[in-house]
Amino acid sequence: MSRALRIVNARTYDPVNGVDGDVREILSYDGKIVAQLPKDEQPRTIDATAMVVMPGGVEMHAHLASMSVNAARQIQSATGYEQVVPTAPDTGRLYALLGYTTAVEAAVAPSAAAHAHLQLDVMDNIDTAILVLMANHEGLIDRIDQGDEDGVVAMIAQLLRATGGYGIKAVNPVAVAAWRRDAAKNHIDTIDDKVAGTKVSPRRMLEVLTAAQQRLDLPHPTHIHGPQLGEPGSVEITIEMIKALKGQRFHLAHLQYYAYGRTKHGSLRSEVEYLLRHVSDHKTVTADLGMVAYGPAFTATADLPLEYNLYRQAGSPCKPARFVESGNEDCFGLMPLVHQPTHPVHAVQWATGLELALLWDNPWQYALTVDHPNGGSFLNYPALIALLMSKPLRDEQLAAANKAARQYTGLGGINREMTLSDIAIITRAAPAAALGLANKGHLGPGADADITIYNDDTADPQRMFENPRYVIKDGHVLVEDGQLGQAVKGVRFCAAVDNNPYGALLLRDWWQAASGYAVDQFGITEQQWQAMIPVGGGVD
Amino acid sequence: MNSTKRDLSLVLPNIRSSGSAQVNAYLDAGEADFSDAIQHAMRILCAASAPAIIGLEYLTVEAVHQAVLLAQAIRGRLLPHRPIDPVRLHQAVAWSSTLDQARQCDVWIRVGTEDKKFDHVEQHISDGIIQVHAKRSLVKTEHPSLEVVLKHRAVATKDPGQWVRSVLKRHARSAVVTMAHGCDARVVSQWHKLAVDVQEHVRMAVMELPSPDAANCRGAEEVVAWMTGRSLAAGGVDFSDPQLHTYKAIDVAVSVEKAQADVPQRISIGAEVDSQAQVGFVTPGLAAGLAARVMRFDGAMFWLCTDTVTAAPDPTVKLLADLRQAIGTCQ
Lengths: 540, 331
Fold this sequence. Notes:
Order of helices and strands of chain B: HEEHEHEHEHEHEHHEHEHEEEEEEH
Distance between the termini of chain A: 29 Å
Largest interface: A-B, 57 and 56 residues
Oligomer: heterodimer
Number of helices of chain A: 18
Largest sheet of chain A: 9 strands, mixed
Number of strands of chain A: 24
Number of strands of chain B: 15
Structural class of chain A: alpha/beta
Strand order of the largest sheet of chain B: 2-1-13-12-11-3-4-10
Number of helices of chain B: 11
Helix content of chain B: 25-40%
Structural class of chain B: alpha/beta
Radius of gyration of chain B: 22 Å
Strand content of chain B: 15-25%
Shape of chain B: elongated
Distance between the termini of chain B: 51 Å
Helix content of chain A: 25-40%
């Protein structure tokens, strides 16, 4: 098989390189986009007449390979609940069939990293990475409380190195730890709430994590799932947090859930415009949308207080909910959920996600996500893209939704319809840039030859984005005429962090005291790490 | 005891050393060439109408992965040896914890255990908890009846704070309830509900202890779930033709470690020769020293060796892969 590929007559959307629907020729050789093919090379040629070409899609926040989603698979199987979480091999296949070639698992507890990597090992067709949960790690909290800043950085470096992690994930910073110490304290009221018996607050934890990310030159900034997710009034603490981190690079996960004020009845009211005024002031901030799609979902989160409160509010004794507490790091909870257009909260969340995307005038700052499987399956992306591209379609669905969506969001008044270029930015260019993956999300020379070719069917964007005509991964034609061919092994990205002897010492001593088993059992092996692609720290 | 053996003792209490990481083959209990045995096994499996691989809990994580692929190739079933308990997965709610959390809690409530009957797992956990709790633990023992837990729930549902004050008798920050293996699923379920009831007053979790021979049950369940989306605990996995309208009795069993006497033909994989098996493969099984992994019942993953660079890989992985490759040549 030729190592060369030539795509001709391609109406190309490559926003990074300023290409906005121009007809281009795209060449790839040995898995990379090239300006010219080697002499005498006979490439396979794809005629993309009447087709649209974009870089391969980049999923920057999904739960694909954690212990919690694996528990969700077992519950789905045992209860006959709809299969929102696919198997690990199917996850890779389904992303490829959707035109996505890179996906990040957004929350892995350090001690569960080996488990996550085993799942990712059988997730072919996509390149992957994991973000490592750190904001409720008792070892880090101890170290921060002692004021040992060098120790904190060393321990974070070693946690990333030992787990093959790509970046730092902060879920409801210190809230899980605060609840661990005080059963009555299952809610963070301000970012200055302190963990009982310590000086560590959400503000302090985030300051430390973002400072460490800078010192370690991590490719992706601290990825923050903030406090008060989905609560009426969550916008205030979110803005407080954004102000506290002024000047730092950071990423706000599933921002839709933090765009809320409170109605006079105490329920959700969109405050997207208010939130965006603050986010837009901070050019170093990136976000992913965390939209909600109607239909089955599975809440799976390390935010144990949130999941507990959700379970209490949902009030149904029949839900197969699971909570797993860990003594020394982040834990998880999970529960199935069906988002219904007739449900006032779900309808407002659905509309607010769309409003957030449509009112944010800088698409380079955010990425399309559903926080799979929390806001629904990633398979909902084509339907959500269709809504972003069509005002009439939105109006039709808004009219059919619970009236709260019309009353408490501004969606009905938004006329903007996104273009294919906008979609290429929020599904490719922006998430790749936010992740620090310089070879993803564009089709310039040197980029990975991850390419998606759709039928030019803008009259029906959902159909267009559901059925890519071709998907090319590292120059291999993976999907042809909508059919998945021979699987391609993806690579695993990790942060380029050296082994840190001081961090290793701290981790060992802490682990020995906190855990019942040897630190040698923790994380991944050196051979596994060597097989990964390090990014950051000056390495691209 | 070195740290690896100590860690593994909660998964495999009588773990043995792998010795040489070799597979020896047998045909009708007589020594045979490995390739001949693979060919023979392949013919038996190809002719089977309802084959099954039984005993995944006695395989390493890496070997379970291969067993799933083999089961797909032979359109067979995947089953554990131990009885299936789907009720566990139907519990409305479960609040559990890792063993690390249990070791750090203030109060320990033991349900369904009398000291004389301690099995190795409970004994081991108890040692750990007692050691940690020497100065501050409060241990209660409760009878594993529905009546007892429902009485607790009656108080806790009405006034969880009162339940904490009256039952734990002091200010407790966190508690763990260990349920002895074999407790009635309804009782276990009620203790989990009780944990949810009192969560804002005491951080309580319920830990169901595994049976003494659970081996790598958790590892098998996890691998099967991520590979197939199915739950081993909810009834195993069946890759047979979905068009079949009758559920055939298993006619060929690839049985791991324990013989499956009620099946007409069998292929055995395990540390001992199965004299009744048509084809046998003697492997190290779940033995110390292999570069392969198992999982503890709470989700912790352990290597079977101390040095993954020098340790031999689990030969059962290659054996299962060879069998699958041979199946691919079946006409």
